[in-house]
Design goal:
The protein is mostly helical and about 170 residues long. It has two domains: about 1-80, Orthogonal Bundle (Rna Polymerase Sigma Factor, Chain: A), CATH 1.10.1740.10; about 85-165, Arc Repressor Mutant, subunit A (Orthogonal Bundle). About 70% of the residues lie in helices and about 0% in strands. The protein contains nine helices and no strands. It has helices at about 5-15, 20-30, 30-50, 60-75, 85-90, 105-110, 115-125, 130-135, 140-160. Helix 2 (about 20-30) crosses helix 3 (about 30-50), helix 2 (about 20-30) packs parallel to helix 4 (about 60-75) and helix 6 crosses helix 9 (about 140-160). The protein is globular and about 55 Å long. The protein starts with a helix and ends in a 6-residue tail after the last helix. InterPro entries: RNA_pol_sigma-70-like, RNA_pol_sigma-70_dom, RNA_pol_sigma70_r2, RNA_pol_sigma70_r4_t2, RNA_pol_sigma_r2, RNA_pol_sigma_r3/r4-like, WH-like_DNA-bd_sf. This is RNA polymerase sigma factor. Belongs to the sigma-70 factor family. ECF subfamily. GO terms for molecular function: DNA binding; sigma factor activity.
């Protein structure tokens, strides 16, 4: 694929997925302007590294990884967090406010630990494949499968037992 074709494909991808990309950035920084800056920086980084897309299984997982890394870099640079590896992701990362119409399901989802909420969000709201989620989060596919299974089990139990308090 030529450089021009790669650039056109990337541009089309960004235009089609701009809302998802913004939501992903926002889920890390929780600020509209910062999220927009991250999206802009991510697009620039993506354009600069279009050659590496040929080594990736999917443009979506490749670009989401750029957005996640740019978000983490932004947070480090602005000293809003102190990174402690996976613990940081469990405490601070989240999937943005989703358009979930069922209040009980929404509350059950919000009560999931971050590492499970993240996987559920990528799988069902962003429609990523397990391999793509693994690439975005830099985890093994088996870890993603385990987290997804446990998250769905927690949701099922919470919904069946009605343990979610209505606020």
């Amino acid at each position: 694929m030529s450089q021009k074709e790669s650039r056109e494909l990337f541009t089309q991808f960004v235009l089609e997925h701009k809302e998802s990309v913004y939501r992903l950035a926002y889920s890390y920084v929780k600020n509209e302007q910062d999220a927009l800056d991250i999206v802009q920086d991510s697009i620039y980084k993506g354009l600069k590294s279009l050659k590496s897309i040929q080594k990736q299984p999917s443009m979506k997982s490749w670009f989401y990884r750029i957005v996640v890394n740019t978000s983490l870099d932004f947070l480090r640079k602005n000293k809003r967090i102190q990174l402690v590896g996976d613990e940081w992701l469990e405490i601070h990362a989240s999937v943005v406010d989703m358009d979930i119409h069922n209040l009980d399901l929404e509350q059950a989802y919000e009560h999931l630990p971050i590492k499970y909420r993240e996987v559920v969000g990528f799988r069902f709201f962003d429609d990523l494949k397990l391999e793509e989620i693994a690439a975005v989060l830099d985890l093994s596919v088996n870890t993603i499968k385990t987290r997804l299974y446990r998250a769905l089990e927690m949701l099922r139990i919470n919904l069946e037992e009605g343990e979610i308090e209505h606020e």
